[in-house]
Write a structure and sequence with these properties.
Blueprint (H helix, E strand, L loop, with lengths): L2 H21 L8 H15 L15 H4 L15 H4 L7 E8 L2 E2 L13 E5 H6 L3 H6 L10 H8 L5 E5 L8 E8 L6 E3 L2 E6 L4 E10 L5 E11 L4 E9 L5 E10 L4 E8 L4 E10 L5 E10 L4 E10 L5 E10 L4 E10 L7 E10 L5 E10 L5 E9 L3 H9 L4 H17 L5 H13 L4 H6 L2
Parallel strand pairs: 1-5, 4-7, 5-8, 6-9, 7-9, 8-10, 9-11, 10-12, 11-13, 12-14, 13-15, 14-16, 15-17, 16-18, 17-19, 18-20
Antiparallel strand pairs: 1-2, 3-4
Helix pairs in contact: 1-2, 2-7, 8-9, 9-10
């Protein structure tokens, strides 16, 4: 991409930003103004990444850069609870619904929470100038090197705000549901989520994305997760965007001393999806687990990009990602484990496995280790292959059809990840969604 092309791309978003600033001038705290403007300026300098950038070598975002996405004007009140029902699940104590990036109270379910727990829209927290938001927002997900994070920060307006006070335990899951709808043509949305778990607290957070109809849109979401000393967070991300959608998601996780964070990322939809997961183990004794599964077909493109930084000693990290690809789809996995000089006694493991169901599907896998400490245990590995012919022959010899046998093997491949989901209602819903995508999957469901 030439400098002139890059300027044209950023100029379109600069105009959108100026429009955004005029419309939202009154609904913002004073401290947010310079942050937005600095991020907008940084995006103009960076421009959209190209395949010449190492971190984007296998993912071409020109379909995003070359498209004209307007700011959304959809009113959430036009949706009904029945329309979003397919994206909900039992077991969620609180469900916050966001339509085109904006919190929609009339579709949300917000029962009374324990004292010291605050859950709501980020825009409301801006209006009341909640100190926790000012103390944490933008301090972890840096916009200096990431153009999409810069773009999100420039347009930051709404999203989810979850604050779990010190020593508080939230028994039921908190579901953050983002729904996209086209009403005025293709649109862009930049939801910003802030999740703060104070010391000795515990919570389960589910962030899911979906669409009403076959909408074409661009979602650029950023989530900052801060786990205080001894905090425990069980996090889930579920992507069911329309097959015409573009979605860039960035999750920045900061762990303090002896904290534990588990994140399961499941991607099923989207034309082009990029999942960035960045973790910093900043306190001694922290534990982080990143599990991922994507199942795609057609011409879908999913890129999972992980960076785990061990900045303190005696920390553990595990990464286990699997991909199932059919048609002419393409998957990318980049996993980088970075161990700083003082992070002795680090234990880090990284595994990426991909199952190709067609000759046209492609996967690029790039696990990496950068180690600057001498007393560590770090391993990584990657496999790419097709269905085991011996296993297929065995099942066929027991009377199964070819389609059913293949579906059973694909299901078994996926279940290594789905079985890690501790939230039973979500696990059951996910397994059902996977079976629907498999030939004769209903037979597997009936016999499971």
């Amino acid at each position: 991409m030439t400098t002139m092309q890059k300027r044209a791309d950023t100029d379109a978003y600069r105009e959108r930003f100026e429009e955004f600033e005029r419309q939202r001038a009154a609904a913002r705290p004073a401290w947010l103004v310079p942050l937005r403007k600095a991020a907008a300026a940084r995006f103009a300098e960076l421009g959209f990444p190209t395949t010449r950038d190492e971190d984007w070598r296998f993912t071409n975002v020109s379909p995003i850069a070359d498209s004209d996405f307007s700011l959304p004007r959809f009113k959430g009140s036009e949706l009904t609870a029945k329309q979003i029902e397919p994206y909900t699940f039992e077991g969620a104590g609180t469900t916050l619904v966001f339509v085109n990036g904006r919190f929609t109270p009339e579709l949300s379910a917000c029962p009374e929470l324990p004292t010291g727990v605050q859950v709501g829209g980020l825009a409301a927290a801006f209006r009341t100038d909640v100190p926790v938001v000012k103390a944490h927002l933008g301090h972890y997900a840096s916009y200096e090197k990431n153009a999409f994070t810069a773009l999100n920060t420039a347009f930051v307006e709404d999203g989810a705000f979850v604050h779990v006070g010190s020593g508080r335990v939230v028994e039921q899951a908190i579901h953050l549901l983002f729904v996209s709808v086209n009403n005025d043509g293709p649109h862009q949305a930049h939801p910003r989520n802030l999740i703060v778990a104070e010391p000795n607290s515990q919570a389960t957070i589910v962030e899911s994305h979906g669409s009403i109809g076959d909408a074409r849109y661009f979602t650029n979401s950023v989530t900052e997760v801060i786990a205080g000393d001894n905090a425990v967070l069980d996090c889930y991300k579920l992507g069911r965007d329309s097959d015409a959608a573009f979605h860039v998601d960035t999750t920045q996780i900061q762990l303090a001393r002896s904290s534990t964070v588990t994140m399961n990322t499941i991607t099923l939809g989207g034309a082009l999806v990029r999942n960035n997961a960045n973790v910093v183990l900043a306190g001694e004794g922290g534990d982080c687990t990143l599990n991922g599964l994507y199942m795609i077909g057609g011409h879908q493109h999913v890129d999972n990009h992980l960076r785990v930084e061990h900045a303190a000693p005696h920390c553990n990290s595990w990464e286990y990602y699997k991909g199932i690809l059919n048609g002419a789809s393409r998957g990318v996995f980049t996993g980088r484990i970075f161990v700083e000089k003082g992070a002795q006694k680090t234990d880090a493991k990284q595994t990426n496995m991909s199952l190709l169901l067609s000759d046209q599907a492609q996967v690029e896998s790039k696990p990496q280790l950068e180690i600057f400490a001498d007393d560590v245990k770090c391993t990584h590995g990657a496999t790419i292959g097709q269905i085991d012919r011996d296993a297929l022959f065995y099942l066929r010899s027991r009377g199964m059809s070819d389609k059913l046998a293949r579906s059973l093997l694909v299901q078994a491949f996926a279940r290594e990840i789905t079985d890690q989901i501790a939230l039973e209602p979500m696990r059951a819903r996910l397994e059902e969604m996977l079976l629907v995508r498999l030939p004769q999957g209903e037979l597997l469901r009936d016999n499971s």
